[in-house]
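In the previous chapter we treated chains in isolation. Here, by contrast, the input contains two separate entities that must be folded as one system, with a combined length of 582 residues.
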Amino acid sequence: MEKQPGTSGSISSIIEAVGLSKAFGEVTAVDSVSFTVKRGELFGFLGPNGAGKTTTIRMLSGLTAPDGGRGVVDGCDVAGDPVGAKLRLGVVPESSNLYMELSATENLVYMAQLYGVPKAEWKPRAEALLRQFGLYERKDSRFQGFSRGMKRRMTIAAALVHRPRILFLDEPTTALDIMSARGLRGVIRDLKKSGVTILLTTHLIPEAEDLCDRIAIIVKGRILLTDTVAGIRHRVKETEILELSLNPLTETLIDQLKTIDGIENAAKVNEHLRLYGKTVLKEVPAIVQVLEKNRIEILSIQSLTPTLEDAFVKLTGVEADVMKVDKPQKPPGGGA
Amino acid sequence: MMLAWKQAYYIARKDLKAYYLKPPLISWGLMLPVVFLLAFYLRNPSEITEVAPGLVALTLLFSTTSMAAIVITFEKRIDALERLLLAPLGMKTLIFGKGIGSSVIGASMGIFILLISVAVFGLSISGGFFLLLGMLLSAFVFAFMGLLISVAVREVFEAMTLSNFFRLPMVFLCGVFFPFESLPKVLQIVGFFLPMTYCVDLFRYCLLNQQSFLNPYLDVAALAGFNLLLFFWIDRVFRKRLREQY
């Protein structure tokens, strides 16, 4: 690839992670993670809680020192010049960690001051962001009194105050109600349209499917694959899926069904059982036999077209229900 | 470089607005030294000038360390510290900014008690330059002591407990209520390792017609030395703690 003069990044890639690794004691949180994000791309980091997504973002934003590897943002080596890298980035951490005692405007002006925005732009920039994020009416209200959704929007606004070309969003919709999460996804789409490169971490498969141009699936600190949503779906194109609603549905039963030839994987999704395999539909008689033998009532049975969720389950072996579990939130008074 | 100074100033200004300039905090911070002043005055009005320099130093110590000791611990707890760590500023800028905020509030309260002592009890100032320099250096030393505790502990209550562990012995070993030279030699040796000793001694030099035990230049040099020592110590401990946390 063609290189920019004086930088280590290529023209098309604006974020580069090369063999990033981090261990906390005996636990390896991130294990040789490498990926690149192109300019203007919305790149998703998809994985269950504890997969290493936040640690990777922290290493790329200069907050955590990696044990190995390196990160480059907009041509700036994060370890070599952390202040330079931070100037190029906007980071929205997992918790909405602005200052409770300050108003919306004061918080944004403070961020503008820390990022070296010229004085004449402090207030106009803060007000423009508050309008953009639908918070202008509450510009003089203290951050403490905001709802979770408003706090998330404020935190994104604070990350954009210095007009960064790169935005890191760590689990932006976690713990938000449906309407707030939907509104926030609209904001993220608008930011992408405006040309901001976004690295988004999420454990929500539909969110990644809805927003991202490309996705890296990370499990237990390792990237299993990186591809477009369509590309990932294509990988399981020939996989057949059988969804059964059973009473009762037990782990022992799932283990028994997994032993049938032609069933490559089995997982619980929304209280249903999904069976994956290239010839799983041919195995219906064998499946019914196992169910009858165990006196399991079949409430419904249907074949499905593979979704990203199915592809994720098949490719990672992680149950989709695990991905729906939010991290525990801090008690009131905490940042979130 | 210029941006770093400005960033430190903005951090201090934000801390003052968000945490320090709250009426309950100011009134509570002033109450202790005012009560002490009144108690000593009522006990023996003629001796009030003798203890006034120590009380000004005491005000400075308590008002500066009280908030400095918990400000970073508190921000760690509400995740707001991560916001600062993500901003494009160096660790030393952050520490200095936090130090300025605590020093300003401590020095303001110290000056308030000093003005009461001058206006009400007729204390005279004989070394204005040393007094200002001493006030500034002492405020920063005590702020850095508080910050060192703040970065070393995990919880706010630990910070408060630990800060009293350091503050209370200083009250008795540094000549606050009685002259340093009247202490037994062994305790004097301990006192020489405490910055409060030099702060009180310098204030006695400036407010009691140069009746101090040590040379004011030595006091200034010692306070400056403690400032440097504590500043780099905080830097080291803070980086270590952050490596453990992140």
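The CA atoms of residues 117 and 162 of chain A lie 6 Å apart. Chain A touches chain B at residues 58, 61-65, 83-84, 86-87, 89, 91, 93, 95, 97-102, 106, 110-111, 113-116, 158, 330, 333-336 (CB under 8 Å). Compare these points with the single-chain example from earlier in the chapter.
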